[in-house]
Amino acid sequence: MAVLSSCSHSGLPILHELEAVHGITPTIEHYACVVDLLGRAGRLEEAEILIKKMPMPPNEVVLGSLWVHLELGERVLQELVQMDPQNTEYHILLSNMYALVGKRDKADSLRQILKKRGIRKMPGTSSIHVHGQVHQDKSHPQITDIYIMLDEMIRRLRVAGYVPNAASQVFSGCGSRVGNVDELEEIEQALFSHSEKLAVCFGLISTRAGSPLYIFKNLRICQDCHSVIKMVSDIYNREIVVRDRNRFHCFKHVSALVLSIELL
């Protein structure tokens, strides 16, 4: 990933060489990285071709890298919606992309279509294993202590350079409008309350310093939570393993090493 990120012009050839030369099967994160690089370099046609040739359906990680290129993102998502009209995820992503760039009428129109179909986004929930027991997040009796720990954690993250990724909240489907400072602050507060962050906080206050944390998430982990947990692993000297809907994410505190293992 580091090699791809540093090569704006040679990232695409390196991606093609991963499997052919090095025997590494590219993951969705590899494709997202190259799509982002191509977009930033203005090579939008190549980015679109790459998305269409991907061996797996593009998810919010790939499509989220296109939100600054509305025309391309809109065209790709509209084609995906036409190809798979029953896939509500594409409808939601397109709606959120409209919302993120201020096209609220289009966003609301799409959401009304989903509402009429009786389709709702599944809420994200996380659980953590502590002392042989499974603990849930917002319904936990220690929720006050968890939020106190959350405040401390966010403070330490900001000192370490953390900047909330508002796009992650919009693309999660939980926040739809970024129009002014108040709305941005509201989105950031919603980001801080993502279930996996709360699970991490409970783990930090309930286990010995340095012990590993094991968290289970029913949906994909968002980009902001991925970045936060990587930093938390380093700051608090913890190994953190998160299993989301698609893969295991293993965060090691030594230089914040991250390993993702896709589920079969």
Automatic annotation (TrEMBL):
GO terms for biological process, alphabetical: RNA modification
InterPro entries assigned to the protein according to its UniProt record, in alphabetical order: DYW_dom (IPR032867), E_motif (IPR046848), PPR_At4g14850-like_plant (IPR046960), TPR-like_helical_dom_sf (IPR011990)
Annotated DYW domain residues: 180-253
Molecular function via GO: RNA binding; zinc ion binding
Pfam families the record matches: DYW_deaminase, E_motif
PANTHER family: PENTATRICOPEPTIDE REPEAT-CONTAINING PROTEIN (PTHR47926), PENTATRICOPEPTIDE REPEAT-CONTAINING PROTEIN ELI1, CHLOROPLASTIC-LIKE ISOFORM X2 (PTHR47926:SF436)
Record-stated family: Belongs to the PPR family. PCMP-H subfamily.
Full protein name: Pentatricopeptide repeat-containing protein
Biological source species: Quercus suber (Cork oak)
Gene name of this polypeptide: PCMP-H91_1
